[in-house]
Design a protein that fits this description.
alpha+beta, 16-stranded mixed sheet, three-stranded mixed sheet, 7 helices, globular
């Protein structure tokens, strides 16, 4: 088996394991270490995610037929390993699948439903809010995706991309957990945001308390209170920071607030709103630090401000992308 095939096999194994209700925080941390170890791992997992979402409700024999390279050894043994021993001949509910393509209409939050979960998605430039089955209010930023699962003991949100803000309905006996890149944030009745970027994951709390669950046995859990935030990069938590409350979740009003952010982060956000791709043509611009507030619904003004305030120029000669060059 080639290195690429082995990575693809591992990606599908991780995708199957993460779909299991019994997956532990430690296993999620192991997954995070694997997926951030090599860009090829992330690419393979993203491809596996796309493929799983297209399959629907299948049994092991159907899955073998669709994924023959995964079953070069005993198909039943490999299927059981993929599903943590929970697979059956009658079929396995793959919670990110069975796409029904239900939508609330043009410009509204899109909904994909399975028997066990719901996936909410927004498009570029689209921000929306939905009330979950438990009464919690969930807001999604532009180009974001969240999988929601409700069980008798837990409420789970999986941030697949983008950002979310959740105002949690108070249920002391049924905590709400947000899972993202190997981390878990636990809340009962509170309000907070989680953002997933190429620079890592960021949690900020506007009300109540949120606990950051850590897999390392020697590392204590971290609890954040209103006006506090924390970031994680490749599984390593940073220090708790003080944040202005009015900046937490400001993107819900299309305010994009930056305090010492890199230009790379600003442009990544801009691309979640802009119809035309914006690219940094000069590597030296990547780490340029920005402290400013822009409007998500006015990316043109953002670009004009950046060109006026910083040593860069904007090239619009291409019809497919806007290029930023260092001067």
């Amino acid at each position: 088996m080639s290195d690429l095939e082995n990575i693809r096999r591992q990606a599908h194994e991780w995708r199957a394991r993460l779909d299991d209700d019994a997956v532990s925080i430690s296993e999620r941390a192991s997954f995070h270490r694997w997926v951030t170890q090599d860009p090829a791992h992330r690419d393979a997992f993203d491809q596996a995610e796309t493929r799983w979402q297209s399959l629907g409700y299948i049994d092991s024999d159907q899955f073998q037929a669709l994924n023959p390279y995964l079953f070069k050894t005993s198909s039943r043994e490999h299927w059981n390993r993929l599903t943590g021993g929970h697979g059956t001949g009658a079929g396995v509910a793959l919670s990110l699948m069975l796409l029904l393509g239900l939508a609330f209409g043009a410009g509204k939050l899109s909904l994909v439903s399975t028997p066990d979960s719901v996936i909410y998605r927004t498009n570029k430039g689209q921000i929306d809010t939905v009330t979950l089955a438990d009464g919690s209010s969930l807001s999604l930023g532009a180009a974001s995706e969240v999988q929601a699962e409700m069980t008798s003991t837990e409420r789970r949100l999986y941030l697949l991309r983008g950002e979310l803000f959740v105002d949690v309905a108070h249920e002391p006996d049924r905590p709400l957990l947000v899972f993202v890149d190997g981390l878990a944030f636990k809340a009962v009745g509170t309000a907070f945001e989680v953002r997933r970027r190429r620079q890592g994951v960021r949690l900020a709390v506007s009300d109540g308390q949120v606990q950051v669950l850590r897999s390392e046995s020697a590392a204590p859990d971290v609890t954040l209170t209103p006006g506090q935030g924390i970031s994680s990069w490749q599984g390593s938590l940073g220090n708790i920071e003080a944040l202005p409350l009015d900046q937490i979740g400001a993107w819900r009003d299309e305010r994009l607030v930056y305090r010492g952010a890199t230009l790379r982060e600003v442009i990544d956000d801009a691309n979640r709103y802009s119809a035309t791709t914006i690219a940094l043509a000069s590597p030296s611009l990547e780490t340029l630090r920005i402290t400013a507030t822009f409007r998500g619904d006015d990316i043109e003004t953002m670009l004009a401000t950046l060109e006026d305030a910083f040593p860069l120029r904007i090239d619009r000669s291409s019809t497919s992308e806007i290029l930023l060059f260092a001067e």
